[in-house]
Amino acid sequence: MTLNRRPPLTRDDRELRLWGVGRALFVTFVAAVLVAGGVFYGLVYLLDFQEIDTTKKLDATTLFDLVKLSFGVVAGAGALVALVVAYRRQRVDEAGAHREATRLHTERFSQAVDKLGSDSPAVRLGGVHALAGLADDAPDDSLRQTCIDVLCAYLQLPFTPDPGDDPAHQEEHHRYLAFRKVRHTILRLIGDHYRRPRGTHRSWQGCDLDLTGVTIDGSLDFRGTVFSNGSVSFDSAVFSGGKVNFGGATFSGGTVSFSGATFSGGTVTFSGATFSGGKVSFGAATFISSMVGFGNTTFSGGTVSFSYANFSGGTVAFNSRLMNLDGATFSGGRVSFGAARFTGGTVDFGGTTFTSGTVTFGDARFTGGRVSFGDATFSDGVLDFGDARFTGGTVNFDRVTGPAPSGLLDTVGTPTSGAVVLPAAWLAVNP
After folding, report:
1. Where are the alpha helices (DSSP H) in 196-239?
2. pLDDT tens-digit series, residues 328-346
3. The pTM is what?
4. In the chain, at which end, N or C, are there fewer CB atoms within 10 A of the end residue's CB?
């Protein structure tokens, strides 16, 4: 996924939009006159003056009052000029300080990037921490995003697979382990920074995160992270080992995409995660020889899509038995398994609650493996199996509580291959 971002307006940009001194003085003076006139006539109205007495003779008291008024006007005008000049000076000083901070940031950035390209693993690790520190101290969001982009780009670099610990390839093996250590350090720092509350120091929440095509071959802790607003991409990422934990993560806005990702080993868990807004996509993802858990996950808003996902092996669990947690809850928004392919392995929705919103399996294909909805709770009109096809494997709706999903009974008909187990109550209604 390509992240298209429009850089935010910086302080230097705002400085260029400052009015000239003459224009600023004119506008300020006119505004002051209007405000003073408004206050004067407002007081006259409130005090209910009916008319102003006039006299043809100018006495000494009146003349003195006019002189004081003239000097007051001149003093007020001078104060306005001083105020405008002081304001502009302050803005110029702020812009100068920002430019200086940006210059220092650029120098540190160049040094950190040079370290990241070093042949020494220790120096590269130092460059990783230097870039993370620069992102924390960046004077504006645009510079922070640049640091994050560089770290993500490093993760996307191709690398030679592990040749094993054969003594004949010991040097290549050590080089692989060193590169792996640097990559895992970056992933750990990303998790740490997305856990910190937004608006606090060292928080990266709201920034874009592009991990397209990244290989995650070890343990990664994303527990309690918050992906709100911004774009987060795991498109075509490969989860090939270890344990990746998104437990308790919050997906509350923006776009999070696992499109085309491959779960081919290890364990990936979303237990206790909340999908409450924005758009989350697992479209065309492939689940093979991996354990992916959605136990106790809440889908309460936004859109979550598993369209064209391929469940061809391993286990994908939405239930409590496999994850030792309560079942997932679909209570709002839209979750789509449209055109998903269940060709092997185990997908378990047991104990899951479908109470509102829309969950669709339209055009899904059940051709192998085992899919279970045992002990799930359905509400009327929430699930849709229109145009789904059951041609192999086992799909079990036994012990389900609630009415039959829309289109399921018509779609199932009399299966000639595979096995679709329906509750007796549904068969009694539609024998």
Report:
1. none
2. 677 666 778 888 888 888 8
3. 0.71
4. C
